[in-house]
Amino acid sequence: MDTREFNRLMKYAFMNDDPYGVLGAIYDNELPHPYFNPKNIGFSKLRSFDHNVWLEREKSNRTIVFEDLEYIIPGEEFIWHATGTPPCTEKDLLVTSSITTKDHLWPCKYAFSSWHLVQTNMANKDTFVDQPHKRPYFADILLGQLKPHRKIFYDLLKTTGQVENNLVNVFKEYTTPFIEQGQGDIDLFFKQSIDTNTTKMFQGKFASQYISKHVQEATWISVVAETLYHDKIFFPTEKTGKALMSGKPFIILSSKDFLKNLRSIGFKTFHPIIDESYDEIGDLQERIKSAFNSFLELQKHDQQMVRLHLKDILDHNERCMRNKLWLTRNARSMLDPLATIV
Which of 20, 98, 300, 312 could form a disulfide with 71, with the two C-beta atoms 3.0–4.6 Å apart? Predict the structure, then answer.
């Protein structure tokens, strides 16, 4: 694209009614975004990041494309204590980071396009994890705040003597000293932080979205302690995204069918090299226990051979995570027909 054409398209891109930068999480930021006539189409967040605040819908006949970067089940008080009716209507569109396990409940057409996976992609574009032949620890197990699913796994680690041979972090309770020895920018940022707020900002993004090479290169696998453990919703975050982007196999601590849903959006998982039958178990306690058994069984294998057997899967996942247009393909398929050709 020559400079004159680039500048012409940029002029139209700046005319989009997109005060919250919704399009930046969907389209390539190196090229002008499509032009959506602001007389007909506006962009907004469905909720602020304070989670409890529904943004008031404007009083107009325009179509509003909402971005919902967290999670909720329409019509239910679920996790966030939202009140009232969401502002989207039948003629609006929704780009959402979660998928409900029930039938479609939103009053408008929607597309799954994970804001969290996209932000992880953008935060780590220049970060590439090496895969050394020797590593001092088996798994990185960054549990953070001890929610029920994480506490079950942590208690199992302690009762089976598994804490010392893994990189473990539990807020205000235990951190493997090695974790704090990293010298990367993100490692130093966390080391100097005085609190454990996971939404603190670093270089314009949430600090939790950045990969620590120090941690990832010291372990063979990741135990991903996702945000949710409820079975009503599929909500992948940067926790899963970082493992995918780091070329690491992982065991997931989350809701039932999380891996099944992850495959449904185009990623690949690790059965039968890793026993993933835990993903099908409905009871939380039994699901985490089964995941822990898979964790123990995996330790018995030569980890170089595990990586060799999983190479195609690991490469596929990393390629997908590094391709923003792939991650946002559903949202673009929904929005592209609405763009005005200029």
Answer: 98
| pLDDT, tens digit (0-9, with 9 covering 90-100), for 142-154 | 999 999 999 999 9
Dist. CA 315–CA 248, nearest whole Å: 9
Residue 83 burial (10 A CB sphere; 0-12, 13-18, 19+): exposed
Q: From 265, 255, 240, select the one nearest 78 (Cα to Cα).
A: 255
pLDDT at residue number 68: 85
229-233: average pLDDT: 86
Residue 70: pLDDT over 70: yes
Domains of the chain: 3-115+325-338 (no CATH), 126-321 (3.40.50)
When comparing pLDDT for 2 and 127, which is higher? 127
- 3-state SS string for the chain: CCHHHHHHHHHHHCCCCCCCCCHHHCCCCCCCCCCCCCCCEEEEECECCCCCCECCCCCCCCEEEEEECCCCCCCCCCCCCCCCCCCCCCCCEEEECCEECCCCCCCCEEEECCHHHHHHHHHCCCCCCCCCCCCCEEEEEEEECCCHHHHHHHHHHHHCCCCCCCEEEECCCEECHHHHHCCCHHHHHHHHCCCCCCCCEECCEEHHHCCCHHHHCCEEEEEEECCCCCCCEECCCHHHHHHHHCCCCEEEECCCCHHHHHHHCCCCCCCCCCCCHHHHCCCHHHHHHHHHHHHHHHHCCCHHHHHHHHHHHHHHHHHHHCCHHHHCHHHHHHHHHHCCCC
